[in-house]
């Protein structure tokens, strides 16, 4: 029988995974070189754009499937901390009319932290993988 927190974690896992999958996909579809240029304008090495986009895209899919949820959630939380501190903090919580605020980034950070801490939600492939290892 499913527990309420497992259903809640499942909903958050799907939302987080889909959100990051789309963000990663857009970075590649719009031309990753644009993202590289943006990262470089922030003083970050260009290759970090590939790392971030890859984690968002592949990590988003993995989170949806429930594979490596804890590790990927930690990576996504680190990305959100970087985005807040390096880009969004100057705009304030709700933005300043010229750029978006960090409210969405903070919510995604909180969801990532929750999934990293609980590491258990319904319908995750990790549950099947680790259950079968325990039975062996």
Describe the structure.
With 136 residues, the protein is an all-alpha fold. The protein has one domain. The protein contains six helices and no strands. It is globular, with a radius of gyration of 16 Å. It starts with a helix and ends with a helix.
| Radius of gyration, whole Å | 16 Å
N-C termini distance = 23 Å
The quaternary organization reads as: single chain
Individual helix count? 6
Overall pLDDT score: 92
* Tally of structural domains: 1
Major sheet characteristics: none
Order of helices and strands: HHHHHH
Shape annotation: globular
List keywords for this structure.
single chain; 136 residues; mainly alpha; 75% helix
In short:
The protein is mostly helical and 136 residues long.
Would you spell out the secondary-structure blueprint of this structure?
Layout: H1 4-29, H2 32-41, H3 47-65, H4 69-88, H5 103-118, H6 125-135
């Amino acid at each position: 029988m499913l527990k309420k927190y497992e259903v809640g974690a499942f909903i958050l896992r799907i939302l987080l995974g889909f959100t990051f999958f789309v963000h990663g996909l857009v970075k590649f579809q719009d031309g990753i070189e644009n993202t590289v240029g943006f990262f470089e304008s922030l003083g970050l090495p260009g290759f970090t754009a590939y790392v971030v986009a890859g984690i968002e895209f592949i990590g988003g899919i993995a989170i949806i499937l429930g594979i490596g949820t804890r590790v990927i959630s930690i990576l996504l939380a680190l990305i959100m901390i970087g985005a807040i501190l390096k880009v969004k903090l100057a705009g304030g919580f709700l933005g300043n009319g010229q750029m978006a605020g960090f409210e969405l980034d903070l919510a995604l950070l909180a969801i990532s932290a929750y999934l990293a801490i609980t590491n258990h939600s319904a319908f995750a492939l990790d549950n099947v993988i680790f259950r079968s290892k325990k039975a062996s």
